[in-house]
Description:
Layout: E1 2-4, E2 17-19, H1 25-45, H2 57-60, H3 63-72, H4 78-88
Antiparallel strand pairs: 1-2
Amino acid sequence: MPVLKKQNADPDEPKNYRPIFNLTFISKVLEWIVLDQVTQLLEDSVTLFALPDLSTAFDTVDHDLLLLHLETIFGIRGSVLVWLKSFLSDRLQAVCFN
């Protein structure tokens, strides 16, 4: 179900919509577990302060470069990195408009 990214966005522009996913319960639990592990890893190894506008970041980020930086700069390895690679691989998104 697509929804507007921002309330004041033009509803006639398809690029202003984002999808809403109905995830299974187990997917939500897994997401929280991974988030907790990644957060703990970053807190233990890196001090990072950033305030990015992530409203369109997922649409434009190079996933291979992101994964490379997570591994080489932030030290994310092992099963967490494998899970993130799996999550970002072979994903498709489509929005039907009218």
